[in-house]
Amino acid sequence: MMTERAGFDARKESESFGRAEPSYSQRWPDGAPWPDSSEHRQAQLPALPLPRVRTESLEHSVRGTVFALAVIPVGVGLWLILWKLGWMGSIVAFVTAAGAARLYIAGSTVGSGGTMPRRGAWVVVAVTVATVLLSFLGGIWLDLADYLGGSPLALLFEPEAWDLLGYNLANNADLVEGLKGEFLMALLFSALGCFFTLRQLFAQSRRS
Fold first, then answer.
1. What is the gyration radius of the CA atoms in the chain, in angstroms?
2. Can you tell me whether residue 27 is helix, strand or coil?
3. C-alpha–C-alpha distance, residues 28 and 15, integer Å
4. Is the dihedral of CA 76, 175, 178, 180 positive or negative?
5. Hey, what's the torsion of the CAs at 66, 116, 187, 154, to 10 degrees?
6. 3-class DSSP state for residue 178?
7. Is 116 in contact with 105 (CB distance < 8 Å)?
8. How confident is the model at residue 84 (pLDDT cuts 50, 70, 90)?
9. DSSP E strands: which ranges in the chain?
10. How does pLDDT run across 138-187, given as a tens digit for each residue?
11. Which pLDDT score is estimated for 29?
């Protein structure tokens, strides 16, 4: 009987003092979290650094815009060279968008580098559109200069050249229809040329 009792007591003791399982939100008497609790594990996790968001002031935005505008004459000149050769200047839109983005970042960050903000992405879009429009108008003026046999720059100060251009745009239906088709083609190829660059800029601006 004693042997059976001793065995029973021993089993009871092992069951009573088995591995302790922490209950939900169990704490030590001093208020500290239980070592195996989720609170303790979360307290041991290192704090991850948050990404630094670059805030852009109006002054930086204006400076970046002025820098980006410098790409317009380069884009117009490249377009006119390709126009003279009879090619569509879709690459001009790509060069303009990429150049305007780099110049904007350089101007707005004073050369320290950084990401493109949303305001800067819209500036790049405006610069690209303005370059395409001015380039197309420059191509028309270049054709007019070839027709008149004069210098394009010198004809800018000739009233007769402006009168001839205005008269044809108002009364020459064949010329207007031809220019419409060329303009739509120029817009199409320009959009294809700069689409991926602009999409990347807007995606970067959402993350910044």
1. 36
2. strand
3. 23
4. positive
5. 20
6. helix
7. yes
8. confident
9. none
10. 989 998 999 888 888 899 999 999 999 999 989 989 989 988 888 888 88
11. 52
Length of the chain: 208
Helix (H, G, I), strand (E, B) or coil at 33: strand
- The CA-to-CA distance between both ends of the chain, in Å, stands at 80
At residue 117 the predicted structure's pLDDT band, cuts being 50, 70 and 90, is confident
DSSP 95-140: HHHHHHHHHHHHHHTTTS--PPPHHHHHHHHHHHHHHHHHHHHHHH
What pLDDT does residue 40 have?
A: 47
Structure tokens at 146: 């070839």
CA 64 to chain centre: 14
Structure tokens at 129: 């559109």
15-28, pLDDT tens digit by residue? 444 455 545 455 55
Give 55-61 contacts, CB < 8 A, sequence gap 24+.
56/108, 56/117, 56/119, 56/120, 60/107, 60/108, 60/109, 61/108, 61/117, 61/119, 61/120, 61/123
> Which amino acid, residue 152?
P
Q: Return the closest-CA partner of residue 104 out of 151, 54, 146.
A: 54
Round to whole Å and give the CA distance between 104 and 83: 27
Most distant CA atoms of the chain, gap in Å? 131
The predicted model scores a pTM of 0.66
